[in-house]
Amino acid sequence: MRKKIFLAVLTLVTLGINSTLFSQTDDTMVLKKSDYQQLLERIEKLERAAKLESTAKLESTAKSDSTSKLDSAEKSNSTAKLDRTEKQRPRQPRQPGQRDTSQPFLKKFRENLILGGYGEAVGQGFLYSSNFNRYSYPENYKDAKGYGRVDLPHVVFVLGYKFKNNWTMYSEIEFEHGGMGGAIEIENEEFGEYETEIEKGGEVNIEQFWIQKSFLNEALNIRVGHIIVPIGLTNQFHLPTEFFSVLRQEEETTIFPSTWHQTGISLWGERKKWRYEFQLLSGLSAEMFNDANFIKDGSTSTHEFTIANTLAGSFRIDNSSVKGLRLGLSGYFGNTAKNSLKSDNYSKVNGTLILGTLDFTYKDYGVWLYGNFDYGHLFDSKEISRINKNMSKNSPSPRTNVASDAMCYTINAGYDIFSSIKSLNKMKLYFFEHFGYVNSMYKTASGILQDNKYRKYIVSSGINFYPIKEVAIKIEYSSRFFPKTNYNDENTISIGIVYSSFFN
Known about the structure:
The protein is of the alpha+beta class and 504 residues long. It folds into 2 domains: 1-60; 105-502, Porin. It is 20% helix and 41% strand. The strands form 3 sheets. A 16-stranded antiparallel beta barrel has the order 3-5-6-9-10-11-12-13-14-15-16-17-18-19-20-21. The protein has a two-stranded antiparallel ribbon with strand order 1-2. The chain is elongated. Mean pLDDT is 84; it is low at 12-32 and 198-202.
């Protein structure tokens, strides 16, 4: 624009020289007025245009500078954030000579690590007397006040690892009743005297510890160590999210060890709809058998080791050919009399024990059904009773009679009402009913009295709420009946929160 103004002025000078634009007056060159006026107007227009163009350039330059500053600030902030993130990220120091294989190694380690556990926190209100004389003089305790109790029945931590070439290590550490050490209880057979209950390792147990080698994609597995004995429904399915009741069902846990775990060898596998298991184990100890619990305490060792003068065998077979239905059969066979430090006392008896169980589970369409039938027979029960009753008071033996036969059965039915509500079917709310029978002295040898307080029917109702599949809140009301006796009914309200999960 400035060049145009300069050219206009130059034109003015040049035109002044032209004779058509000037007149001669007194030898002086004078510019014609009309042409001069037109030229000035043209110059003014060019100056205005120059000003407008200059203003537009200034505005454009200002916008460009502002945008550049914003871009620069954003880049600076982004760089600062990245720097701060890098500084905050923890860095694991590498040891001298260590290879930098962290990502592949950690991924493989996580995939092969086995972590998990289960636990129960329980509160109970017993609506009957706890006095040991309530069976001897039931009329005196008909309207007696009840009592309450809180407990941590089982808290278990699982740790294992899958090594290469199909080798696996697995372990479970169990804390029973929230602590460790001997427990003081009132013993009915000792006329209500306090007695210290002796348990190996106090209240902390290694429930499982075994090494396993697998073949043929787990169609065949050899497991050696301290293992679960899968006799009955409860031992095979003992996680607290696998049954309705707040505690493990009373019927099986009255006459069988629970959870039943012993040291031995297991051969097991799965093929299509079948699962099988055969075990060779250390035998039970007849020294610990009693009237109230049949052979339950026979798996308990009061020593720093388990006596294995005689061995036993067990098996279990399950089939799941029908959708939602599992059928199970299990059995046990072994001698029990010689597994004592004073085995000479039982030199003339074997104490052969035979157990057989049938159980089932059905779970589909919101319906959950399960049940079991268990039966046990003990040979030489009369002689074992006599020997045990003559034991020293310092002996760990309960020193009571023991039955020749024990029996129990249960049936459990529940329905998940959330299963039919689409917006709630990720949670579960079961209403359930339970009916069962147990008799730890179902049959006795001649000369041994059948005590009717050990023959019990148990009925219960309750709710299981699962906000997630690993956690359940349980409420249960149960009643214990003693048929053909004048014993008072024993009612209990129980509430618990439980969990069971494998974190990998």
